[in-house]
Each structure stands twice: as structure tokens, then as C-alpha cells.
Specification:
Layout: E1 6-10, E2 14-16, E3 22-26, E4 33-41, E5 47-55, E6 62-63, E7 71-72, H1 81-84, E8 87-88, E9 104-112, E10 119-128, E11 135-141, E12 144-150, E13 157-162, H2 173-180, E14 184-188, E15 203-204, H3 205-216, E16 225-233, H4 237-248, E17 252-258, E18 269-271, E19 274-277, E20 288-289, E21 295-296, E22 322-328, H5 336-349, E23 355-360, E24 377-380, E25 385-388, H6 393-414
Parallel strand pairs: 2-10, 13-14, 13-16, 15-18, 16-17, 17-22, 22-23
Antiparallel strand pairs: 1-3, 3-6, 4-5, 4-9, 5-7, 5-8, 9-10, 11-12, 12-14, 18-19, 20-21, 24-25
Length: 426
């Protein structure tokens, strides 16, 4: 490596996962062309990497907030492009970062453009999923299996239930980031975690009622917890569960629905051992193969408004809390934008205006906290094969930044912090 070339990560090399970092290079020759590279390994050992070509200014400096990439994984001025454009070495792999205590470690390096691409300088960015002072507590109480995150300080802090993943394990990423932003957050699994069954044939709303009650009683143990009700955040299949929780149970003040469905999908939904919604099933014979080896699942879903499917539609007009609906217009998993339109029409038909909507063109299914690698395709657990998720990387990355800020603002506005006792509506 060159002793005079330096990579700087500002304001510091250690930051939160959802924070941008300014990348600067100094000590190059005037107008020197170099390749910037980034590499990282996820929890499953998959290598992700990206690269971009830059030209130094007259002083031998490069600033990714100012200078455009000339070629590579992306082009143009993209300050965080090296992060969101990372791709896996193996096709159809999604970036797995589920454990909150392990930072996302990213190596930035600068290489000569000519010759063998000799490395000139390197820097390491530690991107934390959990802020200093946030407490993490595994939960195994009653039927609940999950992890509770509590922010530092006196509070009071509003409480959240994160339905990030409901099978195949437990993801702590979004919950720990929410706690780092001031929310007491419980992330739960529904099956496939700890001593839970590996597979299920039905879902019980009672489980989520128990989780809400667990959150509400935390003020007995942690004075900084002070929610009147709770917030719910979801993604994909858990979107319809979030709608059902808000529609059938009490104490839900604010719900974020991201690329979900407006009908109860796959599994029948039960409460107090009684079925309240049948499960809407898709026709996997209608998935469309692509040259990449991944499949498009969007057209395997039936017409939700057909008479035979109307019983699966969730009665969101019963909800008393606020909704934030977020839809990706290029979602190839299912038609999230159409489902959002159905939700809006239903609420308006019942005289309700307790919702906000956001819709993003050229954006795919997995809208997550920002600055992680874009995922165009990966294995679909229910489909049993790789599926396309849709979206254009640059536009999708920008949508994640905008969505995350909007979600935080939404919960800060609509979650209150004084406890009351209520009963379920069912």
C-alpha cells in the first residue's frame, strides 16, 4: 500500500447501520484514476462486493459526496453507492444480517486502475445494529419467543412490536435499530425459532395479543417504558398479520404495513380457537421463470375481489389506530400497490381517514432499513425456489432512505406514552 494515500470515513469509521458515512480519499496524484472497492461477509459467510472508478481532482482528492463514479457497480454521484450496490458472489443470495450484537463490517479500499490493481489504501467501517446503552433481553415467556430491546435513558419510550420475520428464525436487525432510535421494541418469531414448531398450519391471533400485553406490562420492570398502546411494523406476509392485529385487537395505536397483502394469506387465522379469517392461497403453477433462474411470483396470487376470495379480506375499518401504507410499484413478489389501493378504497368507503400512503416506482419487495446491499432475487421459503423481488438498485436505495425516516417520524407522531387498560374487541 502507498504510505501517502489515505481513505477517511467521516464523521467516524464506527457508525449506526442506518447512518450514511462520507468517504474521502487523499494523497493521490492530480487527476489520477483509481478503483474504489468494498467487500463484506454476511452471517452465512457469503461475500458481497462492489467497485467504482473515480478520478481525483487537481489536489489528488476524491469525495464520494461530490465526485461521480465513472464506471463500475453504479455511475454518477452516489455517496453510499458502494454499500447499496454490493452483490453476492453467488447468485440469488440475500444479505443476512440478523444478529444485533455483531456489527456489519465493511472494508473500503483504493486500487490503482492500471496494472495489477495494487491496493493503495484501506479503511474499515463498522456499522452497528445496536447503539451504546441499548439493552437486549431474550424473551421466553408464556408462548412468546423473541428479543426485547430497550433504549438507554429515563424515557418514557413508546413500545413497538416488530414482525420482521415470522419463520425460519428470528431477525433482530430492524428491532435493534428502532430501539436505537428511541422505541422499546419486541421482535417475535412465530415458528422455526428456539423450541417452537418447525412448521405450522394455522396462525393464532392470541399469540400477538400476548405479545402486546407483555410489552404493556414492561413498565412494571422498566420505568422508562410508558406506552398507552403499541406500534406494529411489518413487511411482506407479516403485513396482513399486522392489519389483523390492528383490526381485531385493542391497544394498537400505529401500524406500518410494507409491501404486504390486504387479505389474510396462506394460513387460516384463529382467535380463541375459532377461525376468524380463512387463508388465501396462491397458485404456484402460475409463477413465471426468468433467464436468471429466479421466478416471478406476482401473478400466482388470485383476484382478491372475486366473490370466492372476499372472506379473506381483513376488516381494517375496525381499526382505531393510524396506518402508514408503503408500497413498491415494481414488487415482483405480489402486487403491493394494488393491495394498498384496495386498503385505501375500503377505508374511505367506511368513512375512515386514519391512514397515510407512500408509493415508490422502480422499487422492489424488500424495503428495509437503508444502506444494506440491494437484493434483486433470493430463495423464497414458501415458494421453494429463488424468486425475483423487483426494483432498480439506485431508486430502491433512495426509497429505503426516505421510507426509514418517514417510519420513524410516523411512530414518533402517533405513539403516546401513558398506560391504560382495555379489552380485546373480539
Amino acid at each position: 500500500m502507498s504510505s501517502q494515500v489515505r481513505v477517511r470515513l467521516l464523521p467516524k469509521a464506527r457508525c449506526m447501520f442506518d447512518e450514511p458515512v462520507q468517504v474521502k480519499v487523499s494523497g493521490l496524484r492530480s487527476r489520477q484514476v483509481v478503483t474504489m472497492r468494498v467487500r463484506s461477509t454476511d452471517e452465512k459467510g457469503e461475500l458481497f462486493s462492489s467497485s467504482a472508478t473515480y478520478k481525483a481532482d487537481g489536489s489528488g482528492e476524491i469525495d464520494l459526496e461530490r465526485d461521480p463514479s465513472l464506471s463500475g457497480s453504479y455511475t454518477g454521484v452516489e455517496p453510499m453507492g458502494l454499500l447499496w450496490s454490493m452483490k453476492p458472489d453467488t447468485v440469488h443470495k440475500r444479505f443476512h444480517k440478523t444478529k444485533s450484537l455483531n456489527p456489519h463490517v465493511v472494508k473500503f479500499s483504493v486500487h490503482e486502475e492500471e496494472g495489477d490493481g495494487r491496493m493503495l489504501a484501506e479503511a474499515t467501517n463498522e456499522r452497528l445494529l445496536i447503539a451504546d446503552g441499548v439493552t437486549r433481553r431474550p424473551v421466553k415467556e408464556g408462548n412468546i419467543r423473541g428479543v426485547l430491546f430497550t433504549p438507554p435513558g429515563k424515557g418514557p419510550f413508546p413500545a413497538m412490536l416488530d414482525l420482521y420475520t415470522l419463520g425460519g428464525g428470528l431477525s433482530e436487525k430492524r428491532a435493534s435499530l428502532l430501539a436505537s432510535r428511541g422505541f422499546v421494541t419486541l421482535t417475535v418469531a412465530l415458528y422455526g425459532h428456539d423450541d417452537m414448531p418447525r412448521n405450522i398450519s394455522e396462525i393464532h391471533l392470541d399469540y400477538f395479543e400476548e405479545a402486546i400485553e407483555f410489552l404493556k406490562k414492561q413498565d412494571k420492570f422498566f420505568p422508562q417504558v410508558g406506552s398507552k398502546g403499541v406500534g406494529i411494523i411489518s413487511l411482506s406476509k407479516s403485513g396482513d398479520l399486522a392489519l389483523s392485529i390492528a383490526s381485531y385487537l385493542q391497544d394498537v395505536e400505529a401500524t406500518v404495513w410494507i409491501n404486504g397483502c390486504c387479505a389474510n394469506t396462506v394460513f387460516p387465522l384463529l382467535y380463541k380457537k375459532r377461525q376468524i379469517l380463512p387463508g388465501l392461497t396462491c397458485d404456484l403453477s402460475k409463477v413465471i421463470p426468468t433467464e436468471s433462474g429466479a421466478f416471478i411470483g406476482k401473478y400466482s396470487m388470485p383476484n382478491l375481489l372475486a366473490e370466492e376470495n372476499k372472506a379473506t379480506l381483513i376488516p381494517t375499518e375496525q381499526a382505531t389506530g393510524r396506518f402508514l401504507f408503503v408500497a413498491s410499484e415494481d414488487d415482483q413478489n405480489w402486487d403491493s400497490k394494488a393491495y394498498m389501493d384496495i386498503l385505501v378504497e375500503r377505508l374511505q368507503r367506511h368513512g375512515k381517514d386514519n391512514f397515510e400512503i407512500m408509493s415508490y416506482p422502480k422499487t422492489g419487495h424488500y424495503l428495509e432499513p437503508p444502506y444494506g446491499p440491494f437484493c434483486p432475487s433470493s430463495f423464497h421459503a414458501m415458494g421453494g425456489k429463488p424468486f425475483l423481488w423487483g426494483g432498480e438498485p439506485k431508486t430502491h436505495a433512495a426509497a429505503e432512505v426516505h421510507t426509514w425516516k418517514k417510519i420513524l417520524d410516523f411512530f414518533r407522531t402517533h405513539l403516546s406514552c401513558d398506560a391504560t387498560q382495555t379489552i380485546a374487541k373480539l
